[in-house]
Specification:
The termini are far apart. The chain is built from 12 helices and 16 strands. The chain has 2 domains: about 120 residues, 3-Layer(aba) Sandwich (Rossmann fold); about 180 residues, Dihydrodipicolinate Reductase, domain 2 (2-Layer Sandwich). Helix 1 crosses helix 10 and helix 10 crosses helix 12. The radius of gyration is 19 Å and the shape is globular. Helix content is about 30%, strand content about 30%.
């Protein structure tokens, strides 16, 4: 009998997750938005359930028979929803971008004998898998990743429209950014320390602005005293920082009307992961680069695909028993687990999400 998976959230990423897992599992998508559910169920063999995801009781009822739950709700709902899933004793893979520390739920997840994999999206997610994988194989002294989702046409206000949940994008711009220098935690305002970075990739010459955001997340804890220097930056087109600072200072943040991309936008996602360290006494530099574009056939954005398929790669590791650690599992733990990184990257490659590795 096929295992049952319940996906909480039928947004842009939740749709990708449900569609992918429905190929092999009995999938139910739960959301308050009937139109989103109808759009999903007309194209894929997915059951639907109208659910108030802000209600712990309603969530508990929706996941009652699940073998695995996917938490794909907006960040402001994420922590409480994850807690509810764990309290119901269900294994879970989570991609919600919440401000709270998920490790606060580790004792509860262990008590409930639950596998709770968190931050299993693009980045955090793939970046952390790689950090965990290589931290066991070499002495890493510098680790950095740059990530962004943008439109080729530079459409929208100041040439930008978000490629994932607008509230979560705005959270990146207001949450203080943390990074690590010489094993010391440094906190800076979001948008600080801008620099221009050039990319020549897939026939495109891109000059992008990189700035501090709070993307290291659990790496600050899991890689403490293992990687002395760690930093994450977000990528946007030059001039974006001034635009966002003006919005912050005038008290006029994003609105659904001005920051709502369509499903047919020509956009891309770019992730560059760099690490330096020593392996067997030899200095090494390793980089991974991902460049993904809009899927016209399935009408799925690159950010939705790279985030959603990373999540389903982890979900399959949990469902097939190759990842079984109980408690809260930040993605670096998954990267350390034998075979998981290769399994996830093979899964992504089959969906035309390919990391190019440069090893010096």
């Amino acid at each position: 009998m096929s295992k049952k998976v319940v996906v909480l959230g039928a947004g842009r990423v939740g749709k990708v997750i449900a569609a992918d897992l429905s190929k092999d599992f009995d999938v139910t998508s739960a959301d308050f938005n009937q139109n989103a559910l109808d759009t999903l169920s007309t194209r894929y063999p997915v059951k639907t359930r109208v659910t108030d995801l802000t209600s712990a009781t309603a969530v508990g009822e929706a996941i009652h028979d699940a073998d695995l739950v996917i938490c794909a709700v907006p960040g402001f709902m994420g922590f409480n929803t994850l807690k509810t899933i764990i309290e119901n004793g269900k294994d879970v893979v989570d991609i919600s971008f919440f401000a709270e520390d998920p490790l606060e739920l580790d004792a509860l997840a262990s008590e409930k004998n639950v596998v709770a994999a968190v931050d299993c999206g693009l980045a955090p997610g793939n970046s952390d898998f790689i950090a965990g994988y290589y931290a066991d194989k070499m002495q890493i002294h510098d680790f950095e990743f740059l990530v962004g989702g943008l439109h080729f046409s530079r459409t929208g206000p100041n040439g930008y429209l978000p490629t994932f949940s607008p509230p979560d994008v705005w959270e990146e711009y207001i949450r203080p950014a943390r990074y690590v220098v010489a094993n010391k935690l440094v906190t800076m305002p979001a948008l600080s320390e801008p620099e221009l970075v050039e990319f020549n990739i897939a026939g495109h010459h891109l000059v992008l602005e990189a700035f501090n955001t709070d993307g290291l997340r659990s790496l600050i804890t899991t890689m403490h005293n293992r990687i002395p220097n760690m930093k994450e930056k977000t990528l946007r087109y030059p001039g974006h920082i001034d635009y966002i600072r003006e919005l912050r200072e005038t008290g006029k943040p994003w609105t659904p009307d001005t920051w709502k991309p369509g499903d047919d936008e020509d956009e891309y996602t770019l992730l560059r992961i760099n690490l330096k360290g020593i392996e067997n006494g030899i200095e090494k530099k390793i980089s991974y680069t991902l460049f993904a574009t809009y899927d016209k056939e399935n009408k799925m954005s690159s950010m939705s695909r790279t985030t959603g398929h990373t999540c389903t790669g982890v979900a399959r590791c949990v469902l097939n028993g190759s990842y079984t650690r109980k408690g809260i599992s930040p993605p670096s733990y998954i990267g350390e687990a034998p075979g998981c990184l290769d399994s996830i990257f093979t899964h992504l490659k089959a969906r035309n999400i390919i990391f190019e590795k440069d090893d010096v």
